[in-house]
Amino acid sequence: MSNPNTDPTVSSARLHDPDARAFASDNYSGVHPQILTALAAANEGHQGAYGTDDYTRALGDVVEHHFGPGAVAFPVFNGTGANVTALQSLLPRWGAVVCAQTAHINVDENGAPERVGGMKLLSVPTPDGKLTPELIDREAWGYGDEHRAQPLAVSLTQSTELGTLYTVEELRAITEHAHAKGMRVHADGARLSNAAAALEMPLRAFTRDAGIDVLSLGGTKNGIMFGEAVVVLNPEDAALLDSMKYLRKMNMQLASKMRFISAQLVALYGGDLWLESARHANAMAARLRAGVEQLDAVTLTQPTQANAVFARLPKAAADAVREQYKFYDWDEAAGEVRWMCSFDTTPDDVDAFVDAITHAVSRG
Fold first, then answer.
1. What pTM was estimated for this model as a whole?
2. Is there a single domain that holds both residue 116 and residue 137?
């Protein structure tokens, strides 16, 4: 009998069910057809290596269109690489980063910021995943004390790991407070498109114009195959631009065939695909919330502001639903789960999922 993991003659159709849908993560989704088309087009002929290609040059124009003159993109392989490299660019060796306790850099990157990036993370608990100037000040102290890592950067996430959104006013309050203390501000924008769709604002309005210094610009969670970009938003920060050039290589994030990352980002952000896909994912999350919020056994634990739904339900019911659909526990002790919607989640997918939840909780 052939092994489907090693036998090259086994078709992909036998390896997975193409109709299967998951609500575990927007990383579970496939690649948007327009992105696949862009990758195929980028595969024609020869192009310069290490970013000296037409697609990376085009990405520069796209990034300036969204974030303003002088904004510079540095394509990288993945989100963790983007976050680590971006944060390193903001800090000296003795620097520390203030972040939410739930931040991806704190709980989902296996210590990479600290082990690979060599920085200290100073995390603070938040009720909704959002930092405030007051919360930042819980760790932004001890300046000049050689016994304490110096808090010199703030990292926030938009939308947050709890699916919540910062308003422009909240972001400006953070950046003004941080800059006044000599701190720079990084934004993890893995789901920045979902935030823009929900806020109904251009990307620049709640990044560069709100005082963010450097951004991890996401794509994988919104339909591309692989790749993100670090975007330096302040063109006057020559030291930051210079450091990114070398840090990307040191962190093994410099792609030789960079055109295949850049071509995807151009296809996503060069038109309205990023916004259309994010709007759809958000709408599916709103549909899911509406479908379960009347169920007595289901308690919604966070507002649904982007493409995530957080809820508590009996463990037996959750386990029963998981026999059909994959999703993650968020706080297992509290019975809290997270349901994510993607660019390719359909209304029928949501309705079938709601039916499965309704049936599971009705059985007690």
1. 0.94
2. yes
